[in-house]
Amino acid sequence: MTYTLGFSPCPNDTFIFDALVNKKIDTEGLSFEPVLEDVETLNQWALQGKLDITKLSFPAFFQSLDKYILLNAGSALGKGVGPLLISKSEVGSQKSEVEHLSIALPGTNTTANLLFSFAFPSAKRKIFIRYNEIEDFILKDFSKVSPSGGDAEGADLGVIIHENRFTYQQKGLHKVLDLGEYWEEKMKVPIPLGGIAARRSLDPSLSLKIDRLIRKSLEYAFANYPAIPAYVKQHSQTMSEDVMRQHIDLYVNDYSLDLGNDGRKAIEILQQVFASSNEKDSLPAADLFL
Question: Whole-model pTM?
């Protein structure tokens, strides 16, 4: 049986899933059709229930609990892994300095957007574009940005994720605030960025099997690291191997093998923050996890 499996082309995801989708491990009779897309596209598809198993940001997961349940393996959580708020010119991190400016974000359903709103709840001038376009978008001439929320000319600030946190300084951009550090200081738990979810309609024994295979795939990748698999290089052609390793070292860790109690607690707290910001009731853990 073949199941659709969505994840991003970023090194952390291709590193995790390489052995699974390319059958470097025993997949126990299962096959997977990989669907590689940027995270916000995967988020939108999750809201539609499009794929059997998918990577998704946690805000998208919280909105698709009727369709998906979170697996234990494959997630991106940790400390010091959060998105960064950056600018073209020096800007202070005080709310009064940030909340009136225009901000480019990588998608309305991303954890980056939720963490930015957690730090700056009154900021409304949001512009949503693809994550890897944000740096160049900020560097554009934004002198014509309108008071009502900006236009295609550019933005004052941007929230960057993935490999961009390793390259923004090379373009002369400045860090305003590490949104992950802000979350950790306030909530005292790791930062949940994204998870792997399976359709609730799948048999629970099948979901457990898929979860086990994802862990085996990552264990295979770790056993052969620091070698960079060809599959990772194929989908990261514009990155140096050094940046690929930085990416993997930052986003792939023990939480990726298994959420554990700390990881589950962090996700529960994030879900409470999401529910509160959207004026919804928070949910018990039993509704979230496999």
Answer: 0.91
